[in-house]
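[Q] Does anyone have a clean structure-token version of this?
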Amino acid sequence: MGSNGKSAIKERRPGREAAAGSAARSPDIPCAAHPRVLLLNAGYEALTALTARRAVVMLLCGKADVVHDNPELYVMRSATHEVRVPSVIRLREYVHIPYRAKVPMTRAALMHRDGNRCGYCGVRATTIDHVVPRSRGGEHSWENCVACCERCNRKKADKMLAELGWSLRHKLVAPQGRNWRLVSSLREFGPHWEDYLVA
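[A] Here you go.
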């Protein structure tokens, strides 16, 4: 292993036998199959989601410490090291990140804002609806988009809420806060991430 921690690291995910402590070893799996790792600043603010390889290199170089392990036993091995891939790590030294107030609206961020619940009926949301339909001049914005279930989406179609006698379950506003820019770029959260990605 080189001093920078970047030697040839092989990724493995032990099977049940290995997880139970036996000498059995699972076949190598591609790095892309590993979950991403949430990186926190020294003050526990969420910064970004790293690849598993990058997170392990930071741990080996002494730049970060493990905050939460991943419940799934993902392991990376080299000739001299074996490192379990964590779920959350934290920088040892604080880095200053410029604050950007405007949060881009993505499907993942909007679903997170609405708690993955339909803004009309409250069941699990699977799509996004424009409250004022685009065909009627509605904008693709935080204030006009809402998480929606398939049933409500089909029933509403290009109608206005007043035409259906419907109302929204909550006011639609653009989220604010440092973490929302990160949330907008994520497709899914790893274990324990919710503790650091609050609104």
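[Q] Thanks! Anything notable?
[A] Residues 10-97 form one domain.
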